[in-house]
């Protein structure tokens, strides 16, 4: 990820977020899934009740797409290699199984934030403390606290609402660095004829991932400043009051990385993930789902996601499925 030198003209993250709500301790001193605790049986049933047509959509981008993966260029691209295929049998390096069966195998080396993924709640922090107050030294050599594993063990199921900010602004894709806030989300929801309800999983489309595949990797990453949510105290309060368990977007960072007002970087990772315990899901592909919602007018559905169970992981790939 990108980063800038600390600039004395900017407040630090603690100063920026001073006095804002924190959910530390709300679900006990050992909690590692945060606001996902809001998704109890009643919320699962609310999600199930949103299913009306039986249509299904998967939201993951492809890992190893020939055009490249939509991840920060500073991170290593995914590399998948065959360790066994037909060529090994042809070259006499591998005997067929008794009876003649053959098979192929492969390995992958990838950044856990290098595709559609759940971030661990401890993925980003400031002041040496992670979600729920865990010490940042617990991240060394693998996350001992607030890793992605407890999220993966639990799974995520609930009612989700899709807010199509790009469509709301009459655009195919939001522009470079184009911002929006919770009031814009509410205006878009109203225009879509849908209400964002308390404890909804909030899915926001900017069109960014569609742009990645349309323009190609080189053009997409040229001077990239992602569009997205921007920090304000009111926005953080709104997420807290709405008890949003999970923020899902089609951008790499789920927010405009550098707050245009304060200059502080990733303030929403800090205010929403670290302090409120809201799970972050990034790099989802929403083009097909959004098109379908625009046609049938159904913007809410059952959302299910099970990130991979990676011990100590700061994140894990996931292929969310929604059912309308
Ligand atoms: C950071 O913001 C640090 O990473 P990501 O966008 O993958 O959450």
UniProtKB/TrEMBL annotation:
GO molecular function: arylformamidase activity
UniProt feature coiled coil, ranges: none
Domain of life: Bacteria
GO BP: L-tryptophan catabolic process to kynurenine
SUPFAM superfamilies: Putative cyclase
Name of the protein this chain belongs to: Metal-dependent hydrolase
Source organism: Pseudomonas protegens (strain DSM 19095 / LMG 27888 / CFBP 6595 / CHA0)
